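Q: For a teaching session next week I want to show students how multiple molecules come together into a single three-dimensional assembly. I've collected the sequence lines for a complex. Could you give me the predicted structure tokens for the whole thing so I can convert them for display?
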Amino acid sequence: MSLLEVRDLAVAFGRTRAVDGISFTLSEGETLGLVGESGCGKSTTALALMRLLHGAELHGSAIFGDCELLRLGETAMRAIRGAQMGMIFQDPGTALHPLIRVGDQVSEVMRAHLGISGEEARARSLELFRKVGIAAPEQRLRAYPHELSGGMCQRVMIAAAIACSPRLLIADEPTTALDVTVQAQILELIRAISRDARMAVILITHDLGVVAGLTDRVAVMYAGRIVEVATTDRLFAAPGHPYSRGLLGSLPKLDSGWNEELPTIPGSIETAAGAGGCRFAPRCPLASEICRNEPPLMAIGEGRFAACWKAS
Amino acid sequence: MSDILLTEVAGVAPRGRAHILRRFLHHKLAVLGVVVIALLGVAAAGATWLAPYDPDYIEIGQRYAPPLSDGRLLGADDLGRDVQSRLMFAGRISLSVGIAAMLVTLIVGFAVGAFAAYLGGFIDVALMRLTDVMLCFPSVFLLLFVAAFVTPTLTSIALMIGLTCWMEIARIVHAQILSLKSADFIAAAQLAGAPAWRIVLRQILPNTLAPLLVAATLNTANAILLESYISFLGYGIQPPQASWGNMLTNAQSDFQVDAWLAVFPGLAITLAVASFNFIGDGLRDALDPRVSHNER
Amino acid sequence: MVRYLFNRLGQSAVLLIGVSIIGFALMHLAPGGPLAVYTLNPTVTAQDIERVKHQFGLDQPVYVQYFKWAGGLVTGQWGYSFFGGRPVSAIVLERLPATFELMGSSLLLALIIGVAIGMLAAVRRNSILDYATATAAMIALSLPTFWFGLLGIFVFAQTLGWLPAGGIETTGGGGFADRMWHLVLPMLVLAFVLVAQWSRYTRSTMLEILGQDYMRTARAKGLRPARVLLAHGLRAALVPLVTLAGLQLPLLVGGALVTETVFSWPGMGLLFVNALGTRDYPVLMAILMVGALVVVLGNLLADVIVALIDPRIKLGHV
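A: Of course. Below is the structure for the complete assembly, covering every listed component.
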């Protein structure tokens, strides 16, 4: 049974459409990677689902459990945020309030949603700090963000996001701002938590390497559209869309020589064609006459969909 | 009062002229301010020809004539002098003092800030400390203290106000020059052998112009307010010469006898000061690259 | 934090020394210098003046005079009033509570109202409310306080008869309620300008804070809007606002002076203007110094409060 069903979601800021009609589903406990280069609309998608965008027009539908997220009243939405949908952000250094003790920043979520006492919330925060692997949690509860490292701050963010045992965790580039050595730890933590609590995760990243070991399925976004959806194994084994192929191709490989140049995708996302047709066509090595017509997301194999006329 | 606004002007940088003008025109209250100041300016400058009466002509029979009586738009005062004519001549004085004082703040502030930043070292520390110290004195106190032993004339009042209100300008200039000092084009001018004063005038002045323009406008507003207060207390412009401030000297009793007498000069001050403040606000928005077009 | 406070304490000391030097220079600029009281007195002969000059040490080098004068300043020897001969320190200090009462109550009122307006304007940016409050604030900042005060007296005291026209209490003394009653109008007049300033400050500060990541986090947690705005937004705004409160003290003190003169409020401001009329320089001088002292110490207090609110200062991060 699906936990989240997004259909034709579009986000418009005035005349520009940051997200232009995307659809995907997410099952209970499933981990989905949302991958694409910066500006492709992946973060906007996440913020739209959380209804945290100001001055944006939302179209389509997003059914979460039995709620239509896009048409929910603000009060009802507030009861979902933090309680059923938790979110963590890219830079834990700026996402935490600099003047509030980190323990209080975790407790306040529980006090807002669970109606428990301050005492109880503090005890649970301590528990959460242990769970997310913060050493000396008793002292750390009283620390301010600037006294903690970036990785530690991100653990605090995770603790706050999972405090009310949400059914869905949205992680927006959770490791981008962290040291490489810490990145793996944070990813492992997210995986462990989602497995133990059977919590669904949407992991947003520009880095396919992050997705590889962590997600069940991957949706590749390009210029406000999903261009390919596949299970992670299959995507890595045989990417269907030329853009996915390009992304995978530009990952460094263990056996590539030190002086070999990394392959890149020519052009940039700004060159995405505006009027009709495949948006990737201007950068696509396979583009031909047929690509003037916009390709729909088509099944190209078992559990694999790609929006490309040339996908096999 | 309005030197509080000055703390908000930092970070203003030059922009394309047409663009700045368009943004300024977008600020409707600022445009209104320009119109009002222009009208007040014309009324004040042309008072000799435009005023219906001699401002000092005493007509006992007309004492406390109400507005709109006997062809007097704003009535007559306690000595039967025409209020409208007096307001026009007073505007000449008050606006002159405001603008002259603003010029003094610009000159002194620029000199202090520029010398401190340009020469650096001990002089820098001493001058900027002086600026800090001067800022500790509430300017009204300082002004009144000096006004108590200086013969009040238009020039001396403008000088006194200017000399007690130059500190914000000095700080702006100081900060701007320090940030520009390391800029490449200054180094280029130095390498080309340009003398220091020339670098200050030709290179640095144009670059600090935008924030100074805003500060100067707000300083004018502030100077008009200060002049009105010291004239109201009797330490500024001396009667029979009229200023908006000294027309209010008897406001306390006027309010009971003929409230209009106390209302019009106050309105004139508010109108002029608000106009300058709105212009300053509009200039800041137009010149500040950080404020986007639709953010007012 | 201790080092930070010592640093600020040092800065305040430097400022105070500067203030005293300016004060000393001003006193010698005044006609007749420190001896004006004698030179203006026709019964005093030139010989007397020479004698007094020697007695006061005025024939000594300037720096010696300065240190003597500054020493007197510190130990409370502020000289004697030209009129009545009472010690200036006593005259000025007995007026201080009234001034603080007016300044403090106005500031408190203005902070509450001004911060509320500024936050509303920031949240509803570019709304009619935002434009209206911004315009009203600008006009309020353009009103001559003395005239606005007189207008207030005319309307609320003389015409409507709701409030007393001036003074700190009914002549002959009244109770606490009577004092509060007298406080209302001057407090409102002074607060009016302050509200305008604070709403502007708060609006621009809050606009910056509303765009911060941690505000988005707070909303992502599903907290109530009031909690997001107050516990997170206002909490963050406190540091810049307290700093600004310190910086705008000269305006508050100056505004209090003007308000006092209009309402015959028996504080330092009224004393100052009265002493101005009689050219009572020692009194004027003392008030000038006390005014500057209030500003310097107020700034120091603001720094201390900031250090208490902002944990980052402990480690010297700010």
